Amino acid sequence: DFTPNAFVEETIADLKQKIGNDRVILGLSGGVDSTVAAVLLNKAIGENLYCIFVNNGLLRKDEFQSVLDQYKGMGLNVKGVDAADRFLGELAGIEEPEAKRKVIGKVFVDVFDDESKLVKDAKWLGQGTIYPDVIESVSVKGPSATIKSHHNVGGLPDYMKLQVVEPLRMLFKDEVRRVGASLGIDPELLGRHPFPGPGLSIRILGDITPEKVAILQEVDAIFINGLKEHGLYNDVWQAGAILLPVNSVGVMGDERTYEKVVALRAVQSTDGMTADWVHLPYEFLMEISNKIINRVKGVNRVVYDISSKPPATIEWE
Ligand code: XMP
């Protein structure tokens, strides 16, 4: 049986022993895993942990600033790096899902590498890898094809010459949350839905532009805030919105419109390997759909994704 307190104690002792007085660099994503990994490392080695939080321009609405503030409030030694223009610039015109992931992985490594050079004599790279990441990235790499390359596993190049330290490598998500709770991390942060490293880029089907990102951020914020307001957020494992690369005809007043379609997705899961779509109340879906269409310019139709995994995946790309 898993006991978070014992895990915390043992892990901190191990990390102290393993790392000693070395410096560690860790990329924070705003998610549960990297945050819990950072707090564990911070307890073990204090100011020798250098955290970097990169804005890739594909985060949720206002998330870069709010998450950065939250990290600082937790006493983490964290630097926010706003690289949104660099990411969006390199992504321009790219439509293919795996190509998007590759570009994002590459730019992330470049940005991260630049930043890590500023930390003199760093020896270690801390990562929030958890057990399902390890399994899925192994199991999807058949000889024929990679289903989806999760860029946060093994994606960093050798030239960084850092040893990897992954304190959560043997844990499942629920165990990570329990460890986080025993470390005193804000329950709201621990309860956050998983969010993919490539962010909104894989929820914008087709090419990515800053305008599309802004539209999707608005739609996503209405949906997620709605789930919170209605007390549904914690009943859902992951939720988000997808911007489809099609226009459909609508009518607004006496005007014909020809605008974008968004899909809403909410799933129940334990580890992301399988998932069922959530039976959100019709009244709730009606309210959210109306809000989105009335408030978000450029969107005139909302659909709800009723596909489970397998055979569909959680993300659309
Ligand atoms: P799929 O779409 O494969 O997603 O059913 C399973 C879980 O993984 C997340 N996901 C990713 N996370 N980099 C990530 O860090 C990725 O490239 C990536 N692709 C999917 C997805 O959000 C879900 O939680």
Low-confidence stretches: 139-149
Name of the CATH homologous superfamily of the largest domain: HUPs
The largest sheet is: 5 strands, parallel
Q: Provide the number of structural domains.
A: 2
Number of helices: 10
What is the number of beta strands?
9
Give helix and strand order, one letter per element, not per position: HEHEHEHHEHEHHHEEEHE
CATH fold-level name of the largest domain: Rossmann fold
**SS class:** alpha/beta
Shape: globular
Distance N to C terminus: 36 Å
Helix content: 40-55%
* Strand numbers in spatial order across the main sheet: 3-2-1-4-5
Query: How much is the average pLDDT?
Result: 92
Backbone CA Rg: 20 Å
What share of the residues does DSSP label as strand, in percent? 15-25%
Overview of the structural elements:
With 317 residues, the protein is of the alpha/beta class. β7 and β8 form a beta hairpin. Bound molecules: xanthosine-5'-monophosphate (XMP). The site of xanthosine-5'-monophosphate has 15 residues, from loops.
